[in-house]
Automatic annotation (TrEMBL):
Residue stretches making up the PD-(D/E)XK endonuclease-like domain: 621-896
Entries under Gene3D superfamilies matching the protein: 3.90.320.10
Protein name in UniProt: PD-(D/E)XK nuclease family protein
Organism, scientific name: Microvirga aerilata
Pfam families: PDDEXK_1 (PF12705)
């Protein structure tokens, strides 16, 4: 470098950008730089020989946590919180410590110091690895170096903020630099040359003098109900002129604003906000979520459903379906799905012509991988996960993510690998033997942080200049347009008491107060307003990213400056009124709107033409499938022929379905063990089986917060079994078959009907009865089925069992949740009879209706029965008319049926 002066514009907010900056054509110059505190520190340290290895903040927290573990005693002021949440305590105390160092603290406290300061000093004295320096310590090191050295090149510094607005240790650095010959002067505040409203606001902000309201459009506040409303207006306004003298303060930016700009062929402003929900960044938290007991089916389903999951897609799909069938682990559904995944993998490897020993080795690795990502052994969340195993998981994720990055070429996987490596460093630095779930969750949040910016979220080159905050404006511009002028979080309260502050002041330590931070913040937005030469536009959405937002304090100062009446249309413009106007003027630009033509939604459609050759009559059908085909042919075709089905990764089954599956499993095991239970013993054993099966089939009930639901469900199932056994014993019946699978052909060219009967009971006189177990919120629907003579499933089970039993038994429902029997005949149960059903007649009607439906499909017509028929279409006249299954159908958005309205 030559001896040319280095000119630095130094501002508190300039680390992430500035206006003007070195890339601006009108301001670019060799030897000039706009820097924030971090950039300036880096510059000084490089040239003064103080470069150190950067350490991630989560690692510093972990190292400080390690110090606290050695320093904490029962009488420490932080001992109680440290016991409950060590990570959060370490993070908070580290922030306190760093703030003290930024105020000039040296990490020591004598006997006269208040108790809390002495205890923090004791943490500093713990013999442990050197804690990486905070900004305050880096400033102290520079101050020490400047006593013997000076900056090696001529340096000229222009402070954007007044020196008095900088923290104490920074002011000391400025003094030290000045003593070494560095030229340092403060930025000259813009004078505020605007006229009209703008000039009045600028004068008020500098002198406090109010002005009468003056309507000239130089100050505009856009009051919008939502970001999307504001985005359309702002994009229209920007599209109306060249904007070469405009600075856009984008705040966090908005995808909605970028979308509106792109729609008008304008450059995107860019989105600063980050997200931790990108696929690659979810792998690490979800893998750790699978380590805890109880098993969390929702989080595991999320892991399986990631577009790039560490579990191969075929195995992931099968395991996801198993979780949907029985939300748990290690039950029959899970074991079968795992076995099928291994078999499928073996077939694929064999198809590639591999040798048997190679296939065996690869299959063993395949199974080990599944068990690593979804472990059989899980850990108590309070006791914690062994840190050695947690580090192993991190390193495994690093390897996997790097492989993905090399394969896919997506840099996001490199970020995921960095996060996993950083978490491993944090775990090592913490020196903990076991890591509780809450502490690990805190570490993950700290490592992943706000995540990464979305792909394509960067801003594009534009005629206007873009900054992230008002504090980054260090020169004048014709128009200042502030997107998202909403209130931000207030500075954290000062944690120190008056006594502690007095001692610190005596020791030469000056922690920065919240008031000092607010003054610096106000100076930043005042400077931005004074930098506007002709127009100031504030965009104030009442809702940002789905959350309510309140206006920035500047709006209150504008209202005071101009003596505005509430809701004045001269300055405060409601976007909704502008949207309804064909033409409106905003800040001297005319925005023209054209009315949109309404588009009618497709009308509900009852008759759907289909290729007649695709609906081949099924070779096998279940009673449930027959019921769906009769109830709505279109729904059946979409599910079974078009194979349009919800993804297994969408979500868990509803509570009724899950508990119903669990009840079936309990009763199947109960009656498989023995058939001659006493009433009392059956109820007790049902509770034991419930406890055994919940982790396998209903692990949702074991999640934190579900304790009451778990207890109630356990009691309800025990009661249901007790009442069921009471019915059985009083009727003189025995359980003969449980979950009995039966098949029977409808005819020579008809399908095989296949069903599984829950319970087949036998009386001593040889008569048999069928009971179908149901768990639903109410018994009304099934009772109405019997009353109306439409219990197709019961009729099918009775017909199916006829050949096996030599008789066609009566059948009914046992409603488990209500502990109530609904039966098709008056015998054998005393009070379960529901009149209205003849099972033989119902089955005869069902088979005739089935034939009618199949013929219509073969003719190329599928009916959406939930849609009312028109006069031209005629009505369906069927032997068995079932209600459309709209309440449980996933295809309603297609046919647009309106259940209950026809």
């Amino acid at each position: 470098m030559t001896s040319t002066n280095l000119h630095v514009t130094l501002g508190w907010y300039l680390d992430s950008g500035a206006y003007p900056n070195g890339s601006d054509p009108d301001h670019a110059s060799i030897g000039r730089a706009s820097l924030g505190p971090l950039g300036f520190l880096d510059l000084l340290e490089r040239h003064l020989g103080l470069i150190g290895r950067p350490i991630a903040e989560p690692v510093r927290v972990a190292m400080y946590l390690r110090r606290l573990r050695h320093a904490v005693t029962d009488d420490c002021f932080y001992s109680a919180s440290f016991t409950v949440d060590p990570w959060a305590t370490a993070k908070a105390l580290l922030q306190w410590r760093d703030d003290l160092f930024c105020g000039g603290w040296t990490g020591t406290a004598d006997a006269s110091a208040p108790r809390r300061l002495q205890q923090l000093a004791a943490v500093e004295a713990v013999p442990a690895d050197q804690l990486p320096p905070c900004i305050g310590e880096r400033l102290s090191a520079l101050l020490d170096r400047l006593t013997t050295s000076s900056f090696p090149y001529p340096l000229d510094i222009r402070l954007v903020e007044a020196r008095a607005l900088w923290p104490h240790q920074w002011q000391r650095l400025f003094d030290a630099l000045a003593r070494t010959g560095v030229s340092l002067h403060e930025y000259e505040q813009p004078h505020g040359v605007g006229g009209g409203n703008l000039g009045a606001v600028q004068r008020f902000l500098t002198t406090g003098v109010r002005a009468a309201e003056d309507t000239d459009g130089s100050v505009v506040v856009l009051d919008a109900d939502s970001e999307i409303d504001a985005a359309e207006i702002v994009a229209d306004w920007l599209a109306a002129d060249s904007n070469r003298d405009t600075v856009l303060i984008r705040s966090q930016g908005s995808p909605l604003l970028d979308g509106a700009l792109s729609k008008r062929h304008l450059p995107r402003a860019g989105v600063v906000a980050r997200s931790p929900w990108r696929t690659a960044l979810r792998v690490l938290p979800l893998v750790f979520a699978a380590q805890w007991d109880p098993f969390d089916p929702a989080r595991v389903l999320e892991l399986l459903g990631l577009p790039q999951s560490p579990i191969p897609r075929g195995a992931a799909t099968g395991l996801a379906r198993a979780i949907q069938e029985a939300p748990g682990r290690d039950g029959t559904a899970w074991r079968n799905a795992r076995a099928r995944a291994v078999t499928r993998r073996e077939e694929l490897l064999a198809g590639e012509g591999m040798a048997a020993r190679v296939i065996k080795r690869k299959l063993q690795k395949f199974e080990r991988d599944i068990d690593f990502w979804l472990p059989v052994e899980r850990h108590d969340p309070h006791t914690g996960l062994p840190v050695a195993h947690a580090i192993k998981i991190c390193r495994r994720v690093v390897r996997w993510a790097v492989e993905r990055q090399l394969t896919a070429g997506d840099g996001l996987w490199a970020v995921a690998a960095q996060h996993a490596a950083a978490l491993a460093d944090v775990l090592v630095s913490s020196d903990l033997p076991l890591i509780p779930q809450t502490t690990l969750a805190r570490m993950l949040d700290e490592v992943i942080g706000e995540g990464v910016r979305a792909e394509g979220s960067q801003g594009q080159a534009a005629a206007w200049r873009i900054v992230d905050s008002p504090g980054q404006i260090a020169d004048t511009a014709g128009t200042i347009l502030w997107w998202g002028a909403v209130r931000s979080d207030s500075p954290a309260a000062m944690p120190w008491t008056a006594k502690e502050l007095a001692w610190l002041e005596q020791a030469g330590v000056v922690p920065e107060s919240p008031r000092h931070r607010r003054l610096r913040e106000r100076a930043a937005y005042v400077r931005a307003v004074l930098s506007a030469r002709s127009k100031l536009i504030l965009v104030v959405p009442r809702c940002v990213a789905g959350s309510p937002a309140s206006a920035h304090p500047l709006l209150g100062e504008i209202e005071t400056a101009l003596n505005l009446k509430d809701g004045s249309v001269a300055v405060i413009r409601r976007v909704i009124t502008m949207d309804m106007s064909p033409s409106s003027v905003l800040a001297d630009r005319t925005i023209v709107r054209s009315p949109l033509r309404g588009q009618l939604l497709p009308k509900p459609r009852r008759l759907w033409p289909i290729p007649s050759d695709i609906v081949v009559p099924p070779q096998k059908i279940s009673p449930t499938g027959m019921e769906r085909l009769i109830g709505c042919p279109l729904s059946w075709v979409l599910e079974n022929k078009a194979e349009i089905a919800p993804s297994p990764f969408v979500g868990l089954p509803d509570a009724s379905q899950m508990i119903g599956t669990l009840c079936h499993a309990v009763l199947e095991l109960l009656f498989t063990e023995r058939r001659d239970w006493t009433i009392e013993a059956a109820g007790q054993r049902a509770e034991e089986l419930f406890d055994q099966l919940v982790p396998q089939a209903a692990a949702t009930l074991q999640q934190p917060g579900a304790e009451l639901e778990l207890r109630r469900t356990r009691q309800a199932i025990a009661k249901a079994v007790t009442v069921l056994m009471t019915y059985i014993r009083r009727a003189g019946l025995q359980v003969e078959h449980v979950e009995q699978k039966i098949e029977r052909g409808l005819g020579p060219d008809a399908p095989l009907v296949s069903g599984k009967v829950d319970l087949i009971l036998r009386h001593s006189n040889g008569q048999h009865y069928i009971v179908d177990l149901k768990w639903t919120k109410t018994a009304k629907y099934h009772e109405e089925r019997l009353t109306e003579g439409k219990p197709l499933q019961l009729a099918a089970y009775s017909w199916l069992a006829e050949r096996m039993l030599g008789q066609r038994p009566e059948a009914g429902y046992f409603m488990l949740k209500q502990a109530r029997m609904l039966f098709s005949a008056s015998a054998p149960f005393d009070n379960g009879y529901v009149a209205g059903t003849d099972l033989s007649s119902t089955w005869h009607q069902a088979t005739r209706t089935y034939e009618t439906r199949i013929k219509a499909l073969a003719d190329g017509q599928a009916v959406a029965t939930g849609v009312p028929h028109t006069a031209d279409e005629g009505d369906d006249t069927l032997p068995l008319a079932l209600d459309p299954p709209c309440r449980i159908c996933s295809y309603q958005p297609l046919c647009r049926a309106t259940p209950g309205k026809h």
